[in-house]
Automatic annotation (TrEMBL), chains A, B:
SUPFAM superfamilies: Homeodomain-like (SSF46689), Tetracyclin repressor-like, C-terminal domain (SSF48498). It comes from Erythrobacter westpacificensis. The lineage of its organism: Bacteria, Pseudomonadati, Pseudomonadota, Alphaproteobacteria, Sphingomonadales. This is HTH tetR-type domain-containing protein. Keywords: DNA-binding. Gene3D superfamilies: Homeodomain-like, Tetracycline Repressor, domain 2. InterPro entries: Homeodomain-like_sf, HTH-type_Tx_Regulator, HTH_TetR, Tet_transcr_reg_TetR-rel_C_sf.
């Protein structure tokens, strides 16, 4: 399985065909998250990643051609994990504001347990701008779809716009930075309640 | 005036005593914004900065000891410019939500006219984490003070919290990224209206 056969630089990462291969790829991505998160892109090394993963160097080259390529794959993987966490938290019985609350709460917990995600996504702005942009555009699109669905169901006010989605994404990202990455991350319910009440009713005195 | 006398690494940038010195320092900081914004920290050079500023290398060392030091000064300067723009927009006749709208509108215009600000502040997360953190903590503190003042005046709901300030900051930062840096930046009023209405009344259907 381990081959150093070179693939074209634009090729997608090779998809493992066996369960063992899937496990190796997962180990490499998890190790890359630690390596890039601790050292940053420039100081990180392929040998550092394989050492953390406990895999041979050849296994790395089975799936990736370069440090750039595994970084790009990692941003995509983390972006997918954020989406998957929100997806899991949003159970079918939820609607409207409860969906937004569950999605934020899940993100706050995910960021607390994977603090390196901020450093990695933020570094993509410099190392791989296309992935950086794609992560936020994809996330905003997902939020806008929820808002439009809630508008159609009569729960959200008419006129849900892309700007609402970006505003909500910004709220969530900065609350995660402040309370999950820089803070203890031990009050996801309180933070999610504050943000959800603000989203629902605003902060005007009534 | 031009001296290469070395100062201790922790010293504050030297404060110019003459009007001409103030102009030179301003030119150096503006040139640094362009150099770091276009090339990023690692590719940027002191000679690139002085070339853009049209100043002698000696003038640089009058005010800064290193590329790191001018970068740190630049983050502080940009953070101060963001605050100053908001301050100018918030005229004494405004209160409550009108203040928040004016502050966001001013920021959207500032980010459109100084697109490099995102790249510079975001790169500080890696090059100078303390400045990165200070920028956001200072900005959030300023927002929270406005919220508490509005709460005392009966315009904002009781219980304004640091989390509200971070949520509002996140909204503003991401709306600036989407519409001022990645977009044309030609609809600050529409964006400020959407964000302000959401902040005031939320997005619940009524």
């Amino acid at each position: 399985m381990a081959t150093s056969q070179s693939r074209s630089p634009d090729s997608e990462p090779k998809v493992p065909r066996t369960e063992r291969g899937r496990q190796t790829l997962r180990k490499l991505l998890d190790a890359a998250a630690k390596e890039f998160g601790e050292k940053g892109f420039h100081e990180a090394s392929i040998s550092g990643i394989t050492r953390r993963a406990g895999t041979a160097l050849g296994s790395f080259y089975t799936y990736f051609d370069s440090k750039d390529e595994i970084f790009r794959a990692l941003v995509k993987d983390m972006s997918g994990q954020v989406a998957a966490q929100a997806g899991k938290a949003v159970t079918p019985d939820l609607a409207g504001f409860d969906i937004e609350r569950a999605a934020l709460r899940a993100f706050l917990e995910f960021a607390r347990d994977n603090r390196e995600i901020y450093r990695i996504i933020d570094e993509a702005e410099f190392v791989d701008p296309a992935s950086f942009r794609e992560h936020y555009e994809t996330t905003a699109k997902r939020i806008l779809e929820r808002l439009q669905k809630g508008e159609a169901a009569g729960e959200f006010a008419p006129g849900m716009d892309e700007a609402h989605a970006w505003a909500i994404m910004g709220m969530n990202v900065f609350l995660g930075l402040r309370y999950s990455v820089w803070g203890e991350g031990n009050e996801p319910d309180r933070i999610a309640d504050i943000a959800n009440a603000m989203l629902r009713d605003g902060i005007a005195s009534r």
